[in-house]
């Protein structure tokens, strides 16, 4: 029997979930104040900076509104909330590397805005041997999200028909999973749905 260890932090719980299941879902990973600041940060963006999201690798980057209809804006750390978010992800990266030897070298992330009706069909974030993305993070910024608002993230096993996780995009929740392992989709949202999707990468000839 293993007893809970009082010195394990929320970050350690995240590392354990990735080590044991390949995926972790943490409803209160982020503080209310950071989430509120990030939400204000998105709202302060000029609308033209949110552009139709693309699919595929960088060189074959294209938009395909049959697959996804959200709008995105890359996070570059130009504001305090972005810096705070990136600092937290740097800690995640450090712990994944220390405890699981994942060799993560880099993190890229963007805001994503789904308007009512927007969706992202079932996909993998990375195909084995064809991408440098190793670990996906999704952080949600939506207070008071109800089941009837839709926009659930459904996560599947490789050949699975039934989701192993259904996640409402509620403020403060972090989802983290191995990018090559879990197909997932975003069901149509019925109101504006804000998130930050991010990927830890390894260096190499691909990507
Ligand atoms: O927003 C989500 O729940 C997931 C988004 C996603 O799958 C992606 O951007 O690759
Ligand atoms: Fe994805």
Explain the layout of strands and helices.
Elements: H1 10-21, E1 23-26, H2 32-43, E2 51-52, E3 71-74, H3 80-100, E4 106-114, E5 120-123, E6 133-140, E7 153-155, E8 165-167, E9 174-178, E10 184-186, E11 193-201
Antiparallel strand pairs: 1-9, 2-3, 3-4, 4-11, 5-10, 6-9, 6-11, 7-8, 7-10
The protein binds 2-oxoglutaric acid (AKG) and fe (ii) ion.
2-oxoglutaric acid is lined by residues 112, 120, 125, 138, 153, 184, 186, 195, 197.
- The portion of residues assigned to helices is 10-25%
Instruction: Identify low-pLDDT runs.
Output: none
How would a crystallographer describe the biggest sheet? 7 strands, antiparallel
- Spatial order of the strands forming the largest sheet: 1-9-6-11-4-3-2
Q: What fraction of residues sit in β-strands?
A: 25-35%
Bound chemical compounds: 2-oxoglutaric acid, fe (ii) ion
Outline type: globular
Average of pLDDT: 92
Task: Name its key features.
207 residues; alpha+beta; Jelly Rolls; 7-stranded antiparallel β-sheet; 4-stranded antiparallel β-sheet; 3 helices; 22% helix; globular; binds 2-oxoglutaric acid; binds fe (ii) ion; Pro_4_hyd_alph; Pro_4_hyd_alph_FE2OG_OXY; vitamin c; metal-binding; Oxoglu/Fe-dep_dioxygenase_dom
């Amino acid at each position: 029997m293993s007893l809970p260890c009082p010195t394990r932090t929320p970050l350690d719980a995240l590392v354990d979930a990735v080590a044991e299941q390949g995926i972790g879902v943490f409803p209160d990973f982020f503080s209310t104040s950071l989430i509120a600041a990030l939400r204000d940060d998105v709202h302060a963006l000029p609308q033209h900076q949110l552009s139709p999201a693309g699919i595929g690798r960088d060189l074959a980057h294209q938009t395909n509104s049959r697959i996804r209809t959200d709008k995105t804006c890359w996070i570059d750390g130009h504001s305090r909330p972005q810096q705070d978010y990136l600092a937290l992800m740097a800690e995640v990266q450090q712990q994944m590397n220390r405890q699981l030897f994942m060799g993560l070298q880099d993190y890229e992330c963007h805001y994503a805005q789904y308007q009512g009706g927007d969706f992202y069909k079932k996909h993998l974030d990375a195909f084995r041997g064809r991408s440098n993305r190793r670990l996906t993070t999704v952080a949600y910024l939506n207070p008071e999200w109800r089941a009837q608002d839709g926009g659930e993230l459904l996560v599947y096993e490789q050949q699975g028909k039934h989701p192993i996780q259904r996640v409402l995009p509620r403020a403060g929740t972090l989802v983290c999973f191995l990018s090559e392992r879990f197909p997932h989709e975003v069901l149509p949202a019925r109101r504006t749905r804000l998130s930050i999707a991010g990927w830890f990468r390894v260096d190499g000839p691909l990507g």
